[in-house]
Description:
By secondary structure, the protein is an alpha/beta fold. The protein has two domains: 3-266 and 436-446, Glycogen Phosphorylase B (Rossmann fold, 3-Layer(aba) Sandwich), CATH 3.40.50.2000; 273-425, 3-Layer(aba) Sandwich (Rossmann fold), CATH 3.40.50.2000. It has helices spanning 13-23, 33-36, 38-45, 53-65, 70-73, 90-99, 103-107, 130-142, 144-150, 158-183, 201-210, 242-251, 273-283, 300-315, 339-344, 355-361, 372-378, 394-403, 414-418, 434-446, and strands at residues 3-4, 27-28, 31-32, 49-50, 81-85, 109-113, 190-193, 214-218, 236-239, 258-260, 290-294, 323-327, 347-348, 364-367, 382-386, 407-408. The strands form four sheets. It has a six-stranded parallel β-sheet, with helices on both faces. Strand 11, helix 14 (300-315) and strand 12 (323-327) form a beta-alpha-beta unit. Helix 6 packs across helix 20, helix 10 crosses helix 11 and helix 13 packs across helix 16 (355-361). The longest helix is centred in the middle third of the chain and has 26 residues, at 158-183. It is globular and about 70 Å long.
Amino acid sequence: MKILKDNINYFDYKILHTVEEDLNKVNYKGLQLGILLSNYFNFFYSSRINKSWINKAILFLVFFFKPFSKEKLLNDQNKSLIFFSSGSFSHLKSIQNAVTPTIKEKKNTIIIRNDASEGIDKKIFFLTGIFDFLKVLLFLLKNLKSVNEKIKLLNLSITHKMQFFLELHFQILKALSLLKFVKSQSNTKIIGADYDRGYESALFFSVAKALNIESFHVQHGSFNPPVGYFPVNADKIFVWGEMSKNQLIQLGTMPKKILVTGSPIVQDIEINEKIRKNFIKMHGLNSGKNIVLALSSPDKFRDEKQVEFLSKIKKLDRDMENNFFVKIHPARNFKDYLWIKKKFDIDLLPIDITKTDFMNIVDILLTHNSGLANEAIFHDKKVGIIDVLDIVPRNGIELKKYLNVPIIKSSSTLEDLFNICPVISKDKLFHKIGLEAEIEIKRKIWNY
């Protein structure tokens, strides 16, 4: 993801939320503008402007002029649920499986996926034509003064303001395309997604509101207040547990919008010494503790700072009886992280390591902001939140606040890691897991 970090000031999240809510008072054919720009505001909070809109604009123009069967896409499929899946990663597949657990639900669901590996692909966002383009342009020109007034608090430069309106223009066109598709379906009763503030996923919730269709969003990752999951665009959000519910309420979400269902992503993993010993023997590991650093968002400068900290801790292990690893996010390219071994002599865990193997071998998990921390806590693993960067470990701060997970500073030692205690009140994290959570989600969705 290319980003532009210059000339943007850090904003109080309340200002951004106010601007977003004010923009929702402006709509095009019922499509609320604030919802369409949810992902824009998520990036803005981090003092970043998303430049990938340039590539997306090119993609839009390609589809705009590329012939494909629009009539076929607009066929009425007579299904009750439209569900948008953000990708094919295992945790997202778990959510999709929970939403459509049996053949009966699958047959009654239209799946729309970014990666086109299943269901309908992103052509669904490109059903508009040149007249729609001009109509939206005219709408934006007519409302230029009103929109400018509502975004005044952002203090955008001329360049960034142009980018803002271009992104808004494309988002309206894509939402208008999706609106046409949903209108062509005669039996749609509910719309859902695994995220309601993504670049494409937000469109579904603007369309749902425009057509007065019930909507839901299933939590797919840990919350990092104050942005990412708030404001909630869906009518209902299904969350992991009481901690997630309290986080949203503190941000201002109405309690009636929040349903505690648990997480189908987390499985009831068997933890036993035999699995651990087999892994240690197979990989020739030392007999001591296995200390793992989990990286999340791709940022080489900050990744290097975290690995440098782990390297410092490793050097304190004078007897060399412990094992030190880095685990990268499954969505990352393994080859992009080979510098870790070369520069710091720290091994990467296999990208395809099973969750069962990982939870059996890890003794201490260190992370700055990875949702893996929540799952490790559930499985009674020691977790430490490393605070060695120039940005706050938001999920880590929340874990400290609700579960007293320790914050590990740059001055911390190997002994400090050994002294970490497992969390006692882990039930706040996940109301239910695995199959039980699937059943709960199915009941919430299909009993409308």
